[in-house]
Amino acid sequence: MKIAQIPPLMESVPPMLYGGTERIVSYLTEELINQGHEVTLFASGDSYTSAELVPCCARALRLSNVKDPLPYSLLQLDLVFRRAHEFDVLHFHNDCLHFPLMRNFAHKSVTTLHGRLDLPDLAPLFKQFNKMPVVSISSDQRRPLAANWVATVYHGLPRNLYSIKNQDEGDYLAFLGRICPDKGIVRAIEIARRTGQRLKIAAKVDKVDQCYFDETVSPLLAAPNVEFIGEIGENEKEAFLNGAKALIFPIEWPEPFGLVMIEAMACGTPVIAFPHGSVREVIDDGVSGFIVESVDEAAAAVAKVDNLDRRLVRKTFEHKFTSELMARNYIKVYERLLKRPNSSLGKAKPAPNLSLIEPFDRYRQPSRPGAE
């Protein structure tokens, strides 16, 4: 098949540092090529890929410090639109900005939704574009939103990307990802305090979360058993995760997938996670980690984590979360998509009922006396 992959432009493919969606697009692209498919990647110019690369901006937008990414995203979609006839499948990973432009290509397009879907403003959009095929990355992710779901495909990593370097227990707890309230960093620090374990934090701080970091998190980093490393790259993750007794995943939001969980599992490192979002689908409680309801339960799990066999943790990853399996599952999605009749998917819907939109006049200022 000829397949177009369309990721966000904020990070390169793969990303230099943090960037879960772009990392998955990279793994998927390379594995599709390994399995004999022809792939074109519409991404930033600093991406590194075996596919045909169509540069949609010179560098990843986050590294370019652009003020408004929207114009670049629209230029990307225009490039895809003008070349859409060349491909059997258009696979989008950039939310739903493309829906209006690509409505007539619904019969050959699919969109993986990588973000949270419990936002009320999404419902009317997906009701209007209810012919656009979408893929979830966990079953839980679907729960808040009615949409044209065609599959759930779990993320996957290359089988040989990480390996077990340490079959014995590690000597610290690890937190890996991003600093924000939803990720539960304060909980992680409290778990380390309760257990007396060292905690190493390898995480990025986005501009939007800088105030939270400065006011809430930074004072807690003064604890003698807490070490803030900052953002780390792909080549540093294996050693970081292998050296850990467990990955702490104390999330406080409906995590759509949680790539860091399977990164830890690929290193044989157990995960101690709170039961939000996809966690119960990713972690086999008592095998690849522990699912806990509170800080107290997490502290108790730390005491038990050395009883888990790190080789079984790794085998759980190999059974469920490799990029080879992910690509095969997406190929099944593509094949089912292409077997469906074009007429049922590719026909544009009528224009929306404008009576549902508040009239502009309601927001006009009252006329001044004597004004026209």
From TrEMBL:
<feature type="domain" description="Glycosyl transferase family 1">
    <location>
        <begin position="167"/>
        <end position="306"/>
    </location>
</feature>
<feature type="domain" description="Glycosyltransferase subfamily 4-like N-terminal">
    <location>
        <begin position="18"/>
        <end position="124"/>
    </location>
</feature>
<dbReference type="Pfam" id="PF13439">
    <property type="entry name" value="Glyco_transf_4"/>
</dbReference>
<dbReference type="GO" id="GO:0016757">
    <property type="term" value="F:glycosyltransferase activity"/>
</dbReference>
<dbReference type="InterPro" id="IPR001296">
    <property type="entry name" value="Glyco_trans_1"/>
</dbReference>
<dbReference type="InterPro" id="IPR028098">
    <property type="entry name" value="Glyco_trans_4-like_N"/>
</dbReference>
<protein>
    <submittedName>
        <fullName>Glycosyltransferase</fullName>
    </submittedName>
</protein>
<dbReference type="Pfam" id="PF00534">
    <property type="entry name" value="Glycos_transf_1"/>
</dbReference>
<keyword id="KW-0808">Transferase</keyword>
